[in-house]
Each structure stands twice: as structure tokens, then as C-alpha cells.
Amino acid sequence: MVIKVRPASAYEDVRTLVGPKTPGANVCWCLSYRIPSKLNNELRGPARGEYVAELCRADPPPGVIAYDGDEAVGWAAVAPRADTSFARSRKIPYVDDLPVWSLWCLRVRPGHRKQGISHALIAGAVAFARDRGAPAIEAYPLDNGDARVDLTMAYAGIRKNFERAGFTHAADTTSVLAGHPRVVMRLDLR
Fold first, then answer.
1. What pLDDT, on the 0 to 100 scale, is given for residue 49?
2. Ranges of residues in the chain whose predicted pLDDT is under 50
3. Which runs of E-coded beta strand occur in 57-100?
4. Distance (Å, whole) CA 75 – CA 6
5. How far apart are CA 50 and CA 12, in angstroms?
6. CB 60 within 8 A of CB 96
7. Which of 14, 34, 6 is nearest to 121 (CA)?
8. pLDDT score of 153
9. Rounded to the nearest 5 degrees, what angle is found at the Cα of 133, between the Cα atoms of 127 and 137?
10. Run of H or E including 108
11. What is the structure's pLDDT at 28?
12. Cα–chain-centroid distance for residue 94?
């Protein structure tokens, strides 16, 4: 298996990975950290998918997609922190004034897990941010030690996977997800 990671410009592939099974559902679409809370609450049903389609046509697109051949098997959301709700977060602190990018969601499709795709997604997100001039990239994964993480809440990633990718612990947070504290992990790209 050879995994290729590409910018998330193909809306149909993004929809396959983060869209709802029912088009009218009001689920995340990986928008909850990307857009202001008010807009996130106003976008209902198909309007959420239409908004994501616009993001896929934008520069930069909303993240990266991992492909096994032509099949979309994984998703990572990545964007400048200033363009996300993390810019206003009281729970996830800024480390310094560097205009970092944030990597906040990793999703691997069922049937494709435990094959290294999340590692490829992290590397692809790093390359994506670096290619667009990011001086550093941050993630806010769970610091779960060896404890199991509920798959529905594992989207933030886990600390050890970011450590394997060269990220280092930059700060503690007051954010907790699925009963585990989140930490700021950072990789300098300069």
C-alpha cells in the first residue's frame, strides 16, 4: 500500500471523509473549529456541505486527504491558527506571537485504520503548511498515555503520534477531550 497525501481540493472526497450519511444532517463537516460559533450554528443541513465545497475551491483548501490509489482514506484539517476558533481559545494558549498553523482533526476511514495513515496525514499536513509559508505548525492532541481513546473523540490525535512526527510539547492546556487533557504540540518549520 502506497499512501499519497494531497490538498483537499476534491469536494466529493472531503464529503466522503467528513460529510454526513444523510445530506440534511447538521453534523460537524469539520467546521466547528474552522468558523465562528455563530456561523457554525447558522449553517444547517445542505448549507454546511455547500460551505465546505466553497472551502475546497479556495486557496488554500481546508486540509489534506490521504489516498490509497484513487480511494480517499483519510482527512486532516489544517489552516493558519488566526483563521480558526483556536485564535480566540481561552483553553488552548498561544505559545508566542509566531503566526503558526493549526492541525486539529485527523480522520481515517473504518477499514483503513492501523495502517499508518494517520502518520501519513500528519506528514502531509506538515508539508502542506510548510509549502504555504507556515513558520511552525501546532496540534492539540490528547495526552492519553497508554489509555484507550474512544474513536469518536480521537479526531484530535494522540500525543505520541505527534512526537513520532517530530513535534515537541510546547504548552499544557485547560482543554479536556474524552476525559484526557489536551496539550499543545509544535513543530518548527523554519
1. 94
2. none
3. 63-68, 71-80
4. 10
5. 11
6. no
7. 6
8. 82
9. 60
10. strand 101-108
11. 83
12. 18
